[in-house]
Amino acid sequence: MGKEYKFKPKTVKKIKTGNRKIKTKIPVPQSKNVIKDLKAYEPRSMSGLPLIVWDKAKGVHIFDAYGNKWLDFSSGVLVTNAGHGRKEITNAIVKTASRSLHHSYCFPNKERADLAKYIVKKIAPPYHDKVFLLTTGSEAVEAAIKIARNYAHKISGYQKDVIVSFEHDFHGRTLGSQMAGGIEGLKEWIVNRDPDMVNVPIPDGFRGPDQSFDTFLRTLEERNVKPENIAAFCMETYQGGSAIFLPKDYMKKLRTFCDNYDITLIFDEVQAGVGRTGKMWGFEHYGVKADLICAGKGISSGLPLSAVIGHSKMMDLFDPGSMTSTHTGNPVCSAAALANLKLIRKEKLTENAAKLGKTLKKRVMAIWKKYPDRIGFAASKGLVASLQMVAKPGSTDPDHDTAFDIIKVCIENGLMLFAPVGTGGGSVKLAPPLSINKKQLLEGMDILDKAFETVLG
Ligand SMILES: Cc1ncc(COP(=O)(O)O)c(C=O)c1O
After folding, report:
1. Ligand 1 atom closest to Cα of 306?
2. pLDDT tens, 317-366?
3. How far is it, in rounded angstroms, from Cα 106 to Cα 33?
4. Long-range contacts: 407-411, Cβ < 8 Å, 24+?
5. How far is the CA of 183 from the centre of ligand 1 (A)?
6. Is the pTM of the predicted complex or chain greater than 0.90?
């Protein structure tokens, strides 16, 4: 474990621009009781983020209750794609809640029907015709695995059961999604792992420098996995911690491999989906089709809602009542998600992400060029980017403490980032709301640039 945020209020430079205002010590002394209560009454695992008590958030700005304002490069954690607290989403929430329908379990409600129809007709790829609404990203991954295995068993029997996924990928923290994920350290608590869940090296060009598809095939052989026994390949569209996309050629080969062996290709788009990378779905960058899509986070820009999207040949295999969830299609969350998706399309926020993505990439690459010995790898597409700090020049060992310090300086200067993520917590990740404009993006990048200078000299 490296550095952690401690509640030690520090006098910092006062700031006042249209996008940022810092007028108190950071963390704010008056916020002490909130932080103290969280520490006292929640598990320690819930800490780890900068100690800023969010009071309200609007568009690309986050406010505390003490007069400070941050320009947001976090989107929560890649959630508020349409921006924080959008009026249209708030109105949809208030309208549904004040009609007094907060819940209907799986009894039909109109908001769920409207959302399902909109997702299938306007958001899903044309070859998908069904959506299963859930609450969290982990649940969506669990459901996709369940659907894919069920489908495989039906077409080929129970021996077709293996779920393959990439090392370093993250798919959630519930038992199945965590086992499917490829971060070993997060799986230490699971003693009896599913022997039919297998990780293969990720060809990301950094921690997985070997990008040949033959290596993938050889790895399966070494692990005694027969292609015909694979039910699904489940992958993060871009590797979440690092924002790295895989080579297009590799992905085309993977798609063909899946087609040849009736393997369900699941794209976990919980993070990459809904416009984040400059396309509605990140996998579109690869020019391949998805058999199942897991969506979450940005699908609602705030309220808990996730989804599995696919074709009825797979989605309809479970009998009535056998694939449901208590909060599936919650009316308030559905109304919020529908308003969010309409906003993203109406305001062309996906297109904005694609356009501003060029500016973000240029600035990210310029920082990498300045510190080639301390940044092992940088990646950027649409409005998501990451700079991976390394302990030694040329190594892939993550340098959490430096990433931590850079983020701390950003926070003190009015730029909101979440704590370092990715392998060993070495990654400084950038993910502003897709509603950001160029001026705001550049202001944020100037702060980041200066923070690197402050920490690395
Ligand atoms: C790619 C990916 N999949 C799944 C999840 C899990 O989503 P949730 O935290 O909503 O369960 C996350 C969350 O960060 C994610 O980034």
Report:
1. 10
2. 999 999 999 999 999 999 999 999 999 999 999 999 999 999 999 999 99
3. 40
4. 407/50, 407/451, 408/5, 408/50, 409/450, 409/451, 409/454, 409/455, 410/73, 410/447, 410/448, 410/451, 411/26, 411/50, 411/52, 411/70
5. 13
6. yes
